Amino acid sequence: MSAVTDTVRVAPATNPVSQSIRDSMVVAKRNLIRMSRIPEMIIYGLIQPIMFVVLFTYVFGGSMQIGNSTSAADYKNFLMAGIFAQTVTFATASSGAGIADDMHKGLIDRFRSLPMARGAVLTGRTLADSVQTALTLVVLAVVALLVGWRVGSDGSTNAAKVLAAFGLLLLLGYAFTWIGALIGMSVKTPEAATSSGLIWLFPVTFISNAFVDTSHMTPWLRHIAEWNPFSATVQACRVLFANPGQSPSDAWPMQHPVWASLIYSILILVIFRTLAVRKYRSATA
Amino acid sequence: MPGAIYAEGLVKTFGDVRALDGVDLDVPEGTVLGLLGPNGAGKTTTVRCLTTLLRPDSGRAVVAGIDVLKQPDAVRRSIGLSGQFAAVDEYLTGRENLQMVGRLYQMRAKAAKERAAELLEQFHLTDAADRPTKTYSGGMRRRLDLAAALVVSPPVMFMDEPTTGLDPRNRQQLWEVIKQLVSGGTTLLLTTQYLEEADHLAHDIAVVDHGKVIAKGTSDQLKARTGGERVEVVVHQREHIQAAAEVLAGFGKGETTVEDHMRKLTAPVTGGAKLLAEVIRELDTRGIEIDDIGLRRPTLDDVFLSLTGHVAEAKDQENDKEAAQ
């Protein structure tokens, strides 16, 4: 072991932005390698949304009124935007649990003692999670097509609009991942991160236009649903997919869903990324 | 000119607990400081403050000539840390772990790759290099962790109980690596529960208790403070303890301690081997049969005991760790 102390190769400080990007990529790569070595995580991540597609389609389809229609086919086409959006947000719970897990292992001390960009541990993690979410969305879209979901069922659309819808979904998922990250940083155990990471998602995804037509809700609830950031993305997807059940409400996010979805997601991203990174910097693990 | 690691009046409180209560350290460049102390004495907290993981409430720290509180990022470029638990990703291979650390030390991809291969070779991990580290034994993981701390050959190293939980063979191996490192000019701060380890590796020792350094010096200085040599006698029959104690009282330079259940008597003496021979003759004359007799120098365990009032708690801590897992 004669070469243990051969050379000192500590690189000088580089441009902070490019360093931050590079470090985030290194950490993202680490998380992607991990995911590929724990394939059951990806599989379980897929089972739940697939189950939702099948259950909602066959159990609720036909007994739900969307606009003036109670046809099962209309509900199916209405539903998918909601399921997609729910899937990208529910993925944040496992993200938070992963971060909580990391924070309680010795590895975080190593990261924190390295001359790396401060936000990179979290950014790398959330980026890797987004890759997994994208993968999940692809599989889910195939399943949706198999059970009879069709874009353009309620008007005309095109490939660019469909891709834009998936882009908005990924952005929403990425923004929400930072909420998960903040929760993961704030709880004491990974177990707590899993449950507390899920609880808040139920009201957010259910007090919305995802599964039911908001026009049947009591006014105050409908109001919340229509201004819910989550609903904006769902509405935007329905518009871009040309699927039925688009809310005719006067609420601004329902009238301008694509803009609303973008603004909401970016706001959430900026706010929660700032909070999570601040928490990381002060964390004592 | 302060040393490579310098701390002055470090204070850190967690709620009501004053984990550090004014720690002062000064480690000259190229030397090893062994930080000794019982559980909860503040060893790990000291290391965490010096490695930028924790911000002390007050005090000053300089590592490799850089102010830890003012320029933590610059400090991070100049240190390596090997913590109590092997800080490696268990799903990544040994090679991937080292490459990742290299990249995060801002090395270029190619350099990180070459350095990883070098370290795997040096730490005898080449055969296991491409297996996920969760398949590694405890010793292998520790070696990998140490390798990760050495990726950039930092001028200052911190090791927090590097050999806790290792078997004797692995411990010996790790000691060799550490010696190699120090002979190359690295300054090292090492915390340990194993007094033998500090004796073996450290130039200077600082004993910490209740968040304060309560004694400093070389191993020999500390032992000298505790007292000189002692005669230890184990008598064959319990009835002879009293008689043997009388003999020792005649030769001893202090109080004779008796461990009844062991039939063992210990007395501080001066005079070395010559005196030992006299003691043996005297015991023989009185017809006291002995099982064992010897001249003992104080160990660091004795130092520890006399300074902190309790023995090192390596055993307890290991049990705690097992329970925690």
TrEMBL record, chain A:
Record organism: Streptomyces indiaensis
The keyword Ubl conjugation appears for this protein: no
Membrane topology: Multi-pass membrane protein
Transmembrane domains' residue ranges: 42-66, 78-100, 134-151, 163-185, 192-212, 258-276
Domain ABC transmembrane type-2 intervals: 40-283
Family named by the database record: Belongs to the ABC-2 integral membrane protein family.
Annotated protein name in UniProt: Transport permease protein
Keywords, comma-separated and alphabetical: Antibiotic resistance, Cell membrane, Membrane, Transmembrane, Transmembrane helix, Transport
Major localization listed first in the record, in broad terms: membrane
Pfam families tied to this protein: ABC2_membrane
Protein's cellular compartments: Cell membrane
TrEMBL record, chain B:
Membrane topology reported for the UniProt record: Peripheral membrane protein
Domain ABC transporter: from-to ranges: 5-235
Alphabetized PROSITE patterns for the sequence: ABC_TRANSPORTER_1, ABC_TRANSPORTER_2
GO molecular function: ATP binding
Keyword vocabulary terms for this entry: Antibiotic resistance, ATP-binding, Cell membrane, Membrane, Nucleotide-binding, Translocase, Transport
Taxonomy, superkingdom: Bacteria
Pfam families: ABC_tran, DrrA1-3_C
Cell location: Cell membrane
Ribonucleoprotein as UniProt keyword: no
Entry's family note: Belongs to the ABC transporter superfamily. Drug exporter-1 (DrugE1) (TC 3.A.1.105) family.
Protein name as annotated: Daunorubicin resistance protein DrrA family ABC transporter ATP-binding protein
Annotated source species: Streptomyces indiaensis
Taxonomy of the source species: Bacteria, Bacillati, Actinomycetota, Actinomycetes, Kitasatosporales
